[in-house]
Design a protein that fits this description.
This protein is an alpha+beta fold. It folds into two domains: 5-252, no CATH class; 253-291, no CATH class. The protein has six helices and 17 strands. The protein is globular, with a radius of gyration of 21 Å. 29% of the residues are buried.
């Protein structure tokens, strides 16, 4: 297997670029190595005739990949290393050995915020899960949401955050924002000229996306992580990302019914059983009780 070295700093010198409004788009062959100052990944190997692309419009500290598999899905992935600020109290737990060990139970039962609950109405979000993943030996928090299908196209969005100590003793995290947009019933994405003769099921589309992400996660290297400190403090794990973790977590989203007599919404957690109500006119004021 030949691994091609590629850095975002020198991508303009590569061939195979497309110019669109003064922005360079670079096609990435399977296993191409993409680097930023703190992290690197390998481009996934699936669908080599429809390669991922990256763009020079994004800062050097961000690795950005996207592609559209005609009439199946569009994949959009961003990876960056960021300072862990004090307000990220949930992530900070992962850099404390005791709290790190208790993090999974804490995170998977963490109630939805009021604005996330309101997204049931605002953006048609009908699926929320929080769970733990393992990336580059780090324990990470992952959140996922999905929206209703509109005009034949739906979406599923993931956020994975992996805190670590860098070699200067600073708290940082790898942030991975990854999502796919899927299409059914012969609906075409913009840029797709013909309707695919292949009918893809949602489970097939989602599984392919997860396989792509597993290749990325398994290839991640973090250049500035203080591995010696992380190992000494028991914050590194001999575990990898698995495809099944999401399916084992509970869906925290709400199923809501409008009560005309009280002009309010009565909601129940789809899998948590959490009962929440709010007045129709009070978007972010909820009264909730656990099951």
């Amino acid at each position: 297997m030949k691994i091609l070295a590629l850095t975002l700093i020198i991508v303009l010198s590569l061939s195979g670029c497309m110019r669109r409004s003064n922005v360079e788009y670079i096609s990435l062959q399977p296993y191409t190595k993409i680097t930023s100052p703190s992290v690197s990944i390998l481009a996934p190997s699936s669908y080599p005739k429809t390669p991922f692309k990256t763009s020079t419009i994004h800062p050097k500290a961000v690795i950005y990949l996207d592609r559209t598999i005609p009439n199946m899905m569009r994949e959009d992935i961003r990876i960056s290393a960021e300072p862990l600020k004090s307000e990220y109290s949930t992530l900070d737990r992962l850099l404390d050995k005791k709290l790190n060990g208790e993090f999974e139970e804490y995170f998977i039962t963490l109630p939805l915020t009021e604005w996330k609950m309101y997204n049931t109405f605002e953006r048609g979000v009908n699926y929320y899960k929080d769970y733990v993943d393992f990336v580059a030996g780090l324990k990470c928090g992952t959140s996922v949401e999905s929206q209703n299908i509109a005009e034949g196209i739906g979406s599923k969005k993931y956020w994975t955050f992996c805190p670590y100590y860098d070699k200067q003793g600073n708290k940082k995290y790898i942030g991975i924002d990854y999502r796919f947009y899927f299409t059914f019933n012969q609906t075409t994405f913009e840029g797709s000229d013909n309707v695919s003769l292949v009918k893809h099921k949602f489970e097939e589309i989602q599984l392919q996306f997860k396989y792509d992400m597993k290749e990325i996660f398994d290839s991640i290297e973090i250049y500035d992580m203080d591995k010696e400190r992380m190992e000494k403090e028991g914050l590194l794990y001999n575990k990898k990302y698995t495809l099944e973790t999401e399916s084992n977590a509970k869906d925290k989203s709400l199923k809501c019914t409008y009560i005309k007599e009280t002009d309010s919404w009565d909601c129940i957690g789809r899998e948590t059983g959490r009962h929440c109500t709010r007045k129709r006119t009070e978007k972010y004021i909820w009264d909730c009780k656990d099951k």
